Amino acid sequence: MATGYRPEIVQRAFVDFIGSRLHPFRSLTAPKLRLVARYDLSDDLIALRFETNRAFRQQTNGAKSGWQGGQYIDLRVLIDGIYHQRSYSLVGLVNQPLGWHDAIVDSTPSKSKRHTVTIAIKPQGMVSRYLTKHLPIGDVINTSIPRGHFTLAQSLMTAKREASNLEHLPRENTQKNMLLFIAGGSGITPMLGLITQALEDQHQVVLLHYNRTALVALTQQWQQLAAAYPDSFRYHLINTEDQNSYLSGNRHLTTDSLLSLNLPWADTQIFACGSQALLAGLYQAATDITLPHGRSLRDSITIENFGSALADVNSDSHQTGDKAIDVQEHTIYLRARQRQFSSDTTLLAAAERENIRLAYGCRQGVCQLCRCNKVSGVVKNIQTGRLSSDGYEPIQTCINVAMTDVVLDI
Asked: How confident is the model over 262-312, as pLDDT tens digits?
């Protein structure tokens, strides 16, 4: 007896459509958020707490393993009849939106606090200003489920793979790495959950946060973590307007700043999020620090960046921090479209040069809208300088260049 496709008597999409008209927050398939509270973290950083609907919780595998620290969500916001999509970092962990949430007074019912997500936003830009200033409490917006590679699991998996290629390194060195978190301004937001998760996993953690003003609420968070993990956590808050807070007398991140931390660099993984000036300083410092066995500290850096990511690249070289990447011409094949083109620049720019339209958003490696799956071939990230594997994996076309012939699942 044949067992195959069995049509639904009532389509789920139809049920969703009717349900959304009766109750916008309920959906069988679409993850949605409802704004329940907002509060100030500083003069220019505002936290928004959202209740999640059932579809969101089901698609993130429940409250226990719903997401990881450092991930983000895409919010789809309706403003003046037009939908706008933006990405925002999640603050905290599942069932722990903020480390200092007990000190925050809001009107959120205790039931909804069990299933909430929190983001932190600078009120700049049309969508961010709308969310922080005008979106009414109780309004519902569409969202993606949490995603992103800026996580402990991703970085430590890479570290173990690289260490396993060096047989002369003791196995125990790859178990619990020293983790260094470097943030500039609001780049601290994706690190709030990351740092808490790292400490719970018994890692040694050091934080550097460069900012022009003091963030009282965040300082309280670091004080609480330092008290809870006195042997595992230390932090340096560098106010760029206060010389007394500088590391090694430097206002900005330099080689001397990093060396003053006295970290075991061969076993240190670095997470960084901030402006291009901060990231350029980090890459320069990482180049100046010598590791044994021919290793490079640059390969231990995982970044999440914002702002203007890169200047336009030409066909001869692409800048990554302080180092140029030489790129030769290679063939890019789009498997689903059965199209191919030659590329000696970013995959997105090369496709557009041949009048092939690919999805994109910010063109800076931030929004993830250009993300696609690479079937085969090696690409290089022009922001981090990191080479991909030769197999199947997700990449972003706006910040990757082909180092071999490449097949994309597009």
From this structure: 999 998 999 998 887 888 889 889 989 988 887 888 888 888 754 333 333
Separation of alpha carbons 270 and 233, rounded Å: 15
User: What one-letter code names the amino acid at 365?
Assistant: G
Are 15 and 3 within 8 A, CB to CB? Answer: no
Beta bridge partners of 358: none
Distance, in Å, from the CA atom of 65 to the CA atom of 60, rounded to the nearest integer, reads 7
Give 172's contacts (C-beta < 8 A, 6+ positions apart).
Answer: none
Q: Which residues pair with 376 in a beta bridge?
A: 407
Q: How many C-alpha atoms does 67 have within 13 Å on its Cβ side? A: 34
Say if CB 263 and CB 251 are below 8 A apart: no
DSSP H/E element including 395? strand 393-396
Collapsing DSSP states into helix, strand and coil, what is residue 367? Answer: coil
Whole-number Å distance between alpha carbons of 69 and 157: 15
Which of 233, 231, 263, 232 lies closest to 247 in space, CA to CA?
263
How far apart are the C-alpha atoms of 15 and 28, rounded to whole Å? 8
Q: How far apart, in whole angstroms, are the C-alpha atoms of residue 94 and residue 138?
A: 21
Residue pair 300/374 in contact (Cβ under 8 Å)? The answer is no
Q: Is 162 exposed, middle or buried (0-12, 13-18, 19+ CB in 10 A)?
A: middle
On whether the CB atoms of residues 395 and 149 are closer than 8 A, the answer is: no
What pLDDT, on a 0 to 100 scale, did the predictor assign at position 41? 78
Structure tokens belonging to residue 79: 């403003």
Token pair 């059965």 is found at 338
Distance CA 395, CA 387 (A): 11
Joined together, the tokens standing for residue 240 give 């760029």
**Per-residue pLDDT tens over the stretch 117-135:** 888 888 888 889 999 999 9
The H-assigned helical ranges of 275-384 are 276-288, 347-353
- Angstrom CA distances, 1 to 4, 198, 222, stand at 10, 53, 64
Distance from C-alpha of 351 to C-alpha of 347, rounded to nearest angstrom = 6
